[in-house]
């Protein structure tokens, strides 16, 4: 299955030293050029920067679906717009994305997507991690990842922690 990722899952997992969960889940991740640039140029010295430049299981593919991209850029930032356009272009089976507006657009386009917290739930179900709570706490504290209190509790209830 082809999996396309936006910036957030990569930088946040890298910030807590758990980027390898993406490889364990999917084997290979595809990112568009705008995401690559957000992480490696704008994010120089930040989590995920060296990993995106060096890990062979994170591949960059440029978006060719220009008409769709033009429309998407009217509502979304470049990384989100290109991630969605690339998902359509490649007929990818899954999009990794966290931002609400982008998820709403992906939903309107009929794309299958999952966010970082959903990945953590899956990781526990598959035995890649023992507990979700410590990782969510690290995401909040170390990566600055915003998790609403009711969502935080919902995830903990889902994984019975």
Question: N-to-C terminal Cα separation, in Å?
Answer: 30 Å
Q: What is the CATH C-level name of the largest domain?
A: Alpha Beta
Give the radius of gyration.
15 Å
How many E strands?
A: 5
Which strands sit side by side, in order, in the main sheet?
1-4-5
Mean pLDDT: 96
In the CATH scheme, what's the topology name of the largest domain?
Rossmann fold
Largest sheet: 3 strands, parallel
| Overall CATH architecture of the largest domain | 3-Layer(aba) Sandwich
Helix-strand string = EHHEHHEHHEHEHHH
CATH-wise, what's the superfamily of the largest domain? 5'-nuclease
Helix percent reads 55-70%
Low-confidence stretches: none
Number of helices: 10
User: What coarse outline follows from CA principal-axis ratios?
Assistant: globular
Question: How many separate structural domains?
Answer: 2
Q: What fraction of the residues are assigned to beta strands by DSSP?
A: 5-15%
- Which class of secondary structure composition applies to the elements? mainly alpha
How would you explain this protein's 3D organization?
With 161 residues, the protein is mostly helical. The chain folds into two domains: 3-116, Rossmann fold (3-Layer(aba) Sandwich); 118-158, no CATH class. The chain has ten helices and five strands; from the N terminus they run βααβααβααβαβααα. It has helices at 7-15, 20-26, 33-42, 49-54, 66-72, 78-90, 100-108, 116-125, 133-143, 149-158; strands at residues 3-5, 29-31, 58-60, 94-96, 113-114. The strands form two sheets. It has a three-stranded parallel beta sheet with strand order 1-4-5. Strands 2-3 form a two-stranded parallel sheet. β4 (94-96), α7 (100-108) and β5 (113-114) form a beta-alpha-beta unit. α3 runs antiparallel to α6 (78-90) and α5 (66-72) packs antiparallel against α6. The longest helix is centred in the middle third of the chain and has 13 residues, at 78-90. The protein is globular. The mean pLDDT is 96.
């Amino acid at each position: 299955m082809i999996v396309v990722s936006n910036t957030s899952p990569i930088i946040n997992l890298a910030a807590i030293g758990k980027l390898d969960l993406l490889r364990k889940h999917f084997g290979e991740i595809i990112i568009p050029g705008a995401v690559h640039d957000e992480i490696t140029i704008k994010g120089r010295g930040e989590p995920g920067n060296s990993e995106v430049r060096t890990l062979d299981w994170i591949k960059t593919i440029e978006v060719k679906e220009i008409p769709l991209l033009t429309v998407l850029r009217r509502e979304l930032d470049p990384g989100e717009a290109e991630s969605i356009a690339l998902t359509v272009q490649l007929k990818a089976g899954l999009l990794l994305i966290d931002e609400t507006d982008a998820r709403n657009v992906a939903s309107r386009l009929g794309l299958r997507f999952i966010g970082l917290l959903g990945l953590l739930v899956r990781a526990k179900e598959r035995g890649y991690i023992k507990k979700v709570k410590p990782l969510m706490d690290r995401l909040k504290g170390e990566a600055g990842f915003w998790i609403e209190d009711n969502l935080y509790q919902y995830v903990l209830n889902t994984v019975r922690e």
